[in-house]
Amino acid sequence: MESKNIYYIDFGTQARFVEEIEKMNTEYYLANGRNKKYHIVTYGCQMNVHDSEKLAGMLNAMGYIETENIQEADLIIFNTCSVREHAESRVYGNIGPLKRLKDKKPDLIIGVCGCMPQQLEVAQKLAKLFPFLDIIFGTKSLHKFPQLLYTAITEKRTVIDVSENEDVVVEGIPTARKQGVSAFVNIIYGCNNFCSYCIVPYVRGRERSRRPEEIIYEIEQLAQNGVKEVTLLGQNVNSYGKDLVNGITFPKLLEKINEIKGIERIRFVTSHPKDLSNELIAAMRDLEKVCEHIHLPVQSGSTRILKAMNRHYTKEDYLRLVEKLKTNIPDIAITTDIIVGFPGETDEDFEDTLDVCKKVEFDSAYTFIYSKRRGTPAEKMPNQVPDNIKHQRFQRLVKLVEEIALKKNKQMLGKTYEILIDGRSKRNNLLVGRTRTNKVVNVKCPEEYMFKFVNVKILEAAEHWLYGEVI
Ligand code: 5AD
Ligand code: SF4
């Protein structure tokens, strides 16, 4: 037995539907001289971005091709996020106008998937508001997409699938990553933490680790195809392996990945401060491919609010952890997530958050205004903070975070860093890459440096980017 209670299933169970749709698409091609096209719109985190790569992989396997232009698509999918109300409203606002496209092209298939419809009442609301939708399915049904699509096409009805299969890990879903040298790799799905503001445990289920051999095999294949940098994904990567019985831990997994030939940089998101072990800090220090960057969401600097958030650490615990990281990994970049206006947050609590920012000096921080989420404990908490106060605090926090980010980036001026070039800046024709510490650097260099490592001297620094030249 490899795991305590997880069922590993293979995408092969969907083969019949993939084949059937591919046949239909081949017939379409022969009759019309063109392939059917798909367009995916993605909201939310890297986990969702990677899920969209799987949707794209499945669609490619079924004979569709991608288009950037939503107007010419034969199939449109919205992969949604529920983490804040704003993300949800954008989706409602953007689905409505698709009705006109569907009126013009009755065979157009429109699907909504991801974290929103994983909540049954949201799936029902979507079906009611937008009766022209063809497929509505949650995160837990991602792998069943071919079957759902087949049913929608052949039965010409809205197909809704919001299954509650908690303990499943699906292997072998085809994945279409954008061409490049960096790749996302899932290592653990779900979350057991139940932070009191957060919808994630309800829409992504309990923690389920992938088997190490599957992860290693996937990364070896990626390396053979030219990938140099992997980002390991999990809502809480530090929990990796706790649900497996073979004794593997996250640091041990890092050790194994560190040995894979061709992989030069290893990153991971996200780490929960309560689970960040000494063993992991040692692994980050000792394994040469593991980058000197950690995303360590603090959420609040107030011990009282952290308790109400169910985070299981105090302000002092967090500061001690940061000290330990900085001592062991001298040039480490620390980034974070911060919420302002959690229910009951006083001016004093907010000052504690500012204080943590000043003490840690985050390289960058994602800042959020607290948003009430259905069914979470914080939704019902008394003393919800009025909007104007939330906004005032938010402005102050952003200002401080930006000042610190600029100060940190300016410290890099005149120094030389290894950059992995992996993109192009749209504005000024420069190539763009990242340092090991995950800082974005615009680089003046010839096209042939694309997807290569180069040493770059930093000449300009702003809050969110740097500029440099190859030396
Ligand atoms: N309101 C505001 N921000 C939230 N986050 C999660 N839930 C909420 C919420 N209800 C933020 C947290 C998390 C990030 C992904 O989103 O900071 O780390
Ligand atoms: Fe990602 Fe959470 Fe948004 Fe889902 S709800 S897309 S897991 S951030």
Automatic annotation (TrEMBL):
Domain MTTase N-terminal, first and last residues per copy: 36-154
Cellular localisation: Cytoplasm
The Enzyme Commission number assigned here is 2.8.4.3
Residues that coordinate or bind [4Fe-4S] cluster 1: 45, 81, 115
Q: Name one GO cellular component term.
A: cytosol
Q: What class of enzyme is it?
A: transferase
* Domain (TRAM) ranges: 410-471
Q: Name one GO molecular function term.
A: tRNA-2-methylthio-N(6)-dimethylallyladenosine(37) synthase activity
Q: Name one Pfam family in it.
A: UPF0004
**Does tRNA processing count among this protein's keywords?**
yes
Q: Give UniProt keywords alphabetically.
A: 4Fe-4S, Cytoplasm, Iron, Iron-sulfur, Metal-binding, S-adenosyl-L-methionine, Transferase, tRNA processing
Report whether Aminoacyl-tRNA synthetase shows up as a keyword of the record. no
* Catalytically driven reaction(s): N(6)-dimethylallyladenosine(37) in tRNA + (sulfur carrier)-SH + AH2 + 2 S-adenosyl-L-methionine = 2-methylsulfanyl-N(6)-dimethylallyladenosine(37) in tRNA + (sulfur carrier)-H + 5'-deoxyadenosine + L-methionine + A + S-adenosyl-L-homocysteine + 2 H(+)
Record's InterPro entries?
Elp3/MiaA/NifB-like_rSAM, Methylthiotransferase, Methylthiotransferase_CS, Methylthiotransferase_N, Methylthiotransferase_N_sf, MiaB_methiolase, rSAM, rSAM_horseshoe
Residues holding [4Fe-4S] cluster 2: 191, 195, 198
What does the entry's cofactor note say about binding and number? Answer: Binds 2 [4Fe-4S] clusters. One cluster is coordinated with 3 cysteines and an exchangeable S-adenosyl-L-methionine.
Q: Which SUPFAM superfamilies match?
A: Radical SAM enzymes
Q: What coarse category fits the chief subcellular location reported for this protein?
A: cytoplasm
The record places domain Radical SAM core at 177-407
Listed cofactors: [4Fe-4S] cluster
| Family to which the UniProt record says this protein belongs | Belongs to the methylthiotransferase family. MiaB subfamily.
- General function of this protein: Catalyzes the methylthiolation of N6-(dimethylallyl)adenosine (i(6)A), leading to the formation of 2-methylthio-N6-(dimethylallyl)adenosine (ms(2)i(6)A) at position 37 in tRNAs that read codons beginning with uridine.
Quaternary structure annotation from Swiss-Prot or TrEMBL: Monomer.
Q: What is this protein called?
A: tRNA-2-methylthio-N(6)-dimethylallyladenosine synthase
Q: Which organism is it from?
A: Caldicellulosiruptor owensensis (strain ATCC 700167 / DSM 13100 / OL)
What gene, per UniProt, encodes this protein?
A: miaB
